[in-house]
Amino acid sequence: LTAGEANEADARMLQNCDIRNRCEFIAGDWASIEHELRRQGREHSFDLVLTSETIYDTDSYKSLHDLFACVLARPQAEINSLNQQVPAVLVAAKSIYFGLTGSVLTFKQYVDARGVFDVDSVWQSGGSMPREILRLTWK
User: Fold this and answer.
1) What residue ranges in 2-127 does DSSP mark as E strands?
2) What is the DSSP secondary structure assignment for residue 45, as one 8-state letter?
3) What is the C-alpha R_g of the chain?
4) Which residues contact 19 (CB under 8 A, 6 or more apart)?
5) pLDDT per residue over 124-135, tens digit each?
6) Is 133 helix (H, G, I), strand (E, B) or coil?
7) Are residues 1 and 9 in contact, defined by beta-carbon separation less than 8 angstroms?
8) Got the DSSP string for 96-118?
9) Dihedral angle computed from the Cα positions of residues 8, 66, 49 and 132, in that order, rounded to the nearest 10 degrees
10) What's the average model confidence in pLDDT over 5-32?
């Protein structure tokens, strides 16, 4: 999606929702997004980040990881309620991208090596094209 298409989808999908002021669709180059959000003073302003099909190339891991570290809200010092949500990134991906450099395993290894987030698999599909959802939370 282009930024304009993402904004248009955002407007159409959320026009009648009470969550419109709490959700945002963002598309573009991860380093540019990080730069722009920092320029706007919006670091650590997202409680939940959802992304899909973004870990197929190991060359993009650094900029993607840096964006997550920039935008994900810090957890509150004390969790007072079972209903209180911990800020998280959810990454939906194919377990293996044939012919490409990335995979769930290589991304998990990268995240572990950086030491910023805990990463765990919270869902796995079966079948001939296995998929997973990873959850990243602050260490």
Assistant:
1) 48-52, 88-94, 117-124
2) -
3) 16
4) none
5) 998 899 999 999
6) strand
7) yes
8) B-TTSS-BHHHHHHHHHHHTSEE
9) 110
10) 76
